[in-house]
Specification:
Layout: E1 2-14, E2 17-19, E3 25-29, H1 30-36, E4 43-48, E5 54-62, E6 69-72, E7 84-94, H2 95-100, E8 104-106
Parallel strand pairs: 1-8, 2-6, 3-5
Antiparallel strand pairs: 1-7, 3-6, 4-5, 4-7
EC number: 4.1.1.11
Family: Belongs to the PanD family.
Protein name: Aspartate 1-decarboxylase
Length: about 120
């Protein structure tokens, strides 16, 4: 049997932009992607702390150490600049493997989205 489990989480980052005219996705600072073990193109769930919106999109790499968190395309309608969001990805694992799996969870600074 296989189950879905939490793989990665970027807990409480500030939205720095929303670009309705971009083709879609969420742009995430490369440093945050690496620290959370999320890869470019990976499906992610977004939870908006400010308004309760919850939706899925995919990750694209932003400039390293920029703090960028930009929602693009239709997802831009579900956030406002300075909203606080959680970015989550999941993995499908065998049940026994899932029992010992350790996810990558990071807690960036909400003021500038840095890891320090």
């Amino acid at each position: 049997m296989q189950i879905q489990v939490l793989k990665s989480k970027i807990h409480r980052v500030k939205v720095t932009g929303a670009d309705l005219n971009y083709i879609g996705s969420i742009t995430i600072d490369e440093t945050l992607l690496e620290a959370s073990n999320i890869i470019e193109g990976e499906k992610v769930s977004i939870v908006n702390i400010n308004n309760g919106e919850r939706f899925d999109t995919y990750a694209i790499k932003g400039k390293r150490n920029s703090g960028e968190i930009t929602l693009n395309g239709p997802a831009a309608r579900k956030v406002q600049r300075d909203d606080i969001i959680i970015i989550i990805s999941y993995a499908t694992l065998d049940f026994e493997e899932a029992k010992t799996f350790q996810p990558w969870i990071i807690f960036p600074n909400e003021k500038d989205n840095s890891l320090t």
